[in-house]
């Protein structure tokens, strides 16, 4: 088994799908009792007939074999070319088919293109896919966090084993990273907190190398504990991640509506950026992407994945390009307000040719 595409899901399954068989119906909008694992060699990925169900054992074995086939980077100066195993967590109001299409495009843009970042795995959870279903989706997101935490716990155990390898040839050959969109960021924050608790709240353990929060539907004061440890949700994310980058724009009307639905006016991280009244952990920063997205774009909330300049920015972030280097390259610039440090940057569109 040498698949190009990988999927983990807690959605209800089509009836009578056996291990090794291909599904004929779509994954459902209800939460299943157990996770299911799927692989595909080619698209279109929004057709279940493209996917073959696998056992957890076979899925894990095939993914490990692919990661172990990546080049071994022994020179730390070359860390930016190291391959990734990236988990993509989609957001609110995504049917399974729409989530699969977004995942397929993300793979084409970052993992199967010349950028060739490595392997991307879709985690798809049962967002109801209806505009009137915000509250049911949020409830599903909380329940789905338990299943996502199961995935992260397995990853945590595997990485600890790899870090203790004496044989250099058997050491880990891939970075782990996560891209979470919209309410998928909420699923992730809850899941990481469960994983942190499950592993006795270790300090400064890099389970995730790069975490990219795209239009995150979470409170923008999530990281207000700063460098202190208060065992909060933001604390769990900061402790388990080497670097967290939030991509946001004030033009996102969907997140404006989200803030009005709950929390009595608390702003969304993906619309307002980090709450600047607080210090934040040094490994957390945000980038205003307003200038990268077309002025006439109607679907701002999802336009990050449709905009080449944002995709190119994501590549640099995932490769671990330093904030100062992004400033030097002119990819981003520091905001004019003197109170803001390098944790608050604005993306700069490329010059037209």
Tally of structural domains: 1
The main pleated sheet reads as: 11 strands, mixed
CATH top level assignment:
Alpha Beta
Task: Calculate the mean pLDDT score and round it.
Answer: 86
CATH topology, what is it called?
A: Rossmann fold
Query: Would you report the number of β strands?
Result: 11
Spatial arrangement of strands, main beta sheet: 3-2-1-5-4-6-7-8-9-11-10
- The portion of residues assigned to helices is 25-40%
Which spans have pLDDT < 50 for at least 5 consecutive residues? 336-340
What is the H-and-E element order?
Answer: EEEHEHEHEHEHEHHEHHHEE
**Taking Cα atoms only, what radius of gyration do you get, to the nearest Å?**
19 Å
CATH homologous superfamily heading? Alpha/Beta hydrolase fold, catalytic domain
CA-based shape? globular
| Terminal CA distance | 44 Å
The CATH architecture would be: 3-Layer(aba) Sandwich
Q: Helical stretch count?
A: 10
How does the helix and strand content classify structurally? alpha/beta
Instruction: Classify the beta-strand content into a percent band.
Output: 15-25%
Protein name: Esterase/lipase superfamily enzyme
InterPro entries: AB_hydrolase_fold, DUF900_hydrolase
Which features would summarize this protein structure in a list?
353 residues; single chain; 33% helix; eleven-stranded mixed beta sheet; alpha/beta; 10 helices; 11 strands; Rossmann fold
